[in-house]
Automatic annotation (TrEMBL):
Protein's membrane topology: Single-pass membrane protein
Protein name: Sec translocon accessory complex subunit YajC
The encoding gene: yajC
PANTHER family: SEC TRANSLOCON ACCESSORY COMPLEX SUBUNIT YAJC (PTHR33909:SF1)
Family indicated by similarity: Belongs to the YajC family.
Record-linked InterPro entries: Preprotein_translocase_YajC
Major location category of this protein: membrane
Membrane-spanning intervals of the chain: 6-25
Pfam families, per the entry: YajC
Compartment(s) where it occurs, according to its Swiss-Prot or TrEMBL record: Cell membrane
Length: 100
């Protein structure tokens, strides 16, 4: 019984660590995977570096982003952080960067 009481603080710390650190990180990772899967050419996207552009094409691990008329940048697909405006068919997924 005494040994069980001694383990309770350790179990409590592990539970708190899981609730405050691991669970939110898993949730963010799941949301990012859903965003990556839902991207389509024509979406306006925000890259992790802060660049905003229009998605022109997608490959398995790369994306072609148009940052200015006629200026295309190839980036790793995982660097796309958010969809910034509505596509031609539907509402926006996130707020515009200037609203944040």
């Amino acid at each position: 019984m005494s040994q069980l009481v001694n383990l309770l603080p350790i179990v409590g710390l592990v539970l708190i660590f899981w609730l405050l650190i691991l669970r939110p990180a898993q949730k963010r990772q799941k949301e990012m995977r859903a965003l990556q899967a839902s991207l389509t050419p024509g979406d306006e996207v925000l890259l992790g570096s802060g660049l905003i552009g229009t998605l022109r094409s997608l490959d398995d691990d790369r994306a072609q982003i148009e940052v200015a008329p006629g200026v295309h940048v190839t980036v790793v697909r995982g660097s796309i952080a958010a969809r910034t405006t509505a596509t031609l068919d539907g509402p926006a997924d996130t707020a515009r960067p200037e609203d944040v």
